[in-house]
Amino acid sequence: MSEVFSDHSLACRLERSEARANAGFVDARARLYPNSGATWIEVAGAYAMFDGPCSPCTQTLGLGLFAVPSAAEMDRIESFFRERNAPVLHEVSPLADKALLETLNSRGYQPVEFTSVMFQVLKDWVPTAQGSASLHTWVAEAHECDVWAQTSADGWSEFAEYADVMRELARVVAYRENGTPFLVELEGQPIATGDLAIHSGVALLAGASTVPKWRRQGAQNALLESRLSYAKEAGCDLAMFCAEPGSASQRNGERHGFRIAYTRIKYKLAD
User: Fold this and answer.
1) For residue 207, what are the domain limits?
2) Domain check: are 108 and 16 in the same one?
3) What residues have CB less than 8 Å from 64, skipping those under 6 apart?
């Protein structure tokens, strides 16, 4: 078995891969919705991204991991968000420089969220023989992006209050230039989606969604297998995804050979 340790080097690879995927999302938003104001900057190695005041992409990734930000650099990041009437949020890896904690404490930040960052070494991964022969999984082509977006949004249909938001988010993901969208079909009907973004040998898995009436048919397991096979064939040596600690997503990942690299903390600047 290949040995990969949860250290600073691994954290840099994982955090940069997710940051590049999110920056690609922001770029797609700006392209599809020019009036959105979506944009991002890099400061002290961290990506500060704005995708709208309420978007989960509006935050930084990698703060304190590649360099310790100076007071002037922190001012610049905070101004980037405040000028756009957005909260100032940082997803911080525990492998970041310890000096960052003092900086965050002195500037009035508070922890507001935990995230499990999961990873798997693809050299050791082999596909299983399990799965339903009735499920067909493939990479969506350009003309299928709207189908992918609608199917993804339908996976959230039980939350009617988020329908419009999820439909727009799914469309941006589908048209992101650095993403690879996957579809699952059952009896000629698209029933589930998944997304894959590759950067420097790391495959980020995201975009998991299954239409409610087609759940528990094995669609997400099929998507996981298909995306890992695709990533390994593309030359990736690592796969990653993020989950709520202790969630069903985390448990499912652990069943399929993923392990926790570290628990990330999201910090918010007090109003």
Assistant:
1) 122-261
2) yes
3) 44, 46, 92, 93, 96, 97, 99, 100, 103
Residues 151 and 191 in one domain: yes
Clarify whether residues 110 and 177 are in a common domain.
Answer: no
Q: How would you write the pLDDT of the chain (271 residues) with one tens digit per residue? A: 568 899 999 999 999 999 999 999 999 999 999 999 999 999 999 999 999 999 999 999 999 999 999 999 999 999 999 999 999 999 999 999 999 999 999 999 999 999 999 999 999 888 875 556 688 999 999 899 899 998 998 888 777 776 777 888 888 998 888 899 999 998 889 999 999 999 999 999 998 889 888 888 888 889 999 999 999 999 999 999 999 999 988 998 998 899 999 999 999 999 8
- What is the C-alpha to C-alpha distance for residues 178 and 196, in angstroms, rounded to an integer? 9
Assess whether 46 and 146 both reside in one domain: no
Is the pTM above the cut of 0.85? yes
Tell me if 65 sits within 8 A of 45, measured CB to CB.
yes
Torsion of CA 100, 101, 105, 109, to 10 degrees: 80
Q: Is residue 257 domain-resident?
A: yes
- The tokens for 242 are 């993020």
Same domain, 72 and 141: no
Beta sheet of 202-210, edge-to-edge order? 39-43, 46-50, 59-61, 89-92, 259-269, 109-121, 238-243, 202-210, 189-199, 180-186, 135-139
Are 109 and 170 found together in one domain? no
- Residue 3, in any domain of the structure: no
Sign of the Cα pseudo-torsion (64, 235, 251, 167, in order): positive
Q: Are 264 and 94 in contact (CB under 8 A)?
A: yes
Strand partners, 183: 138, 193
Determine, yes or no, domain membership for 1.
no
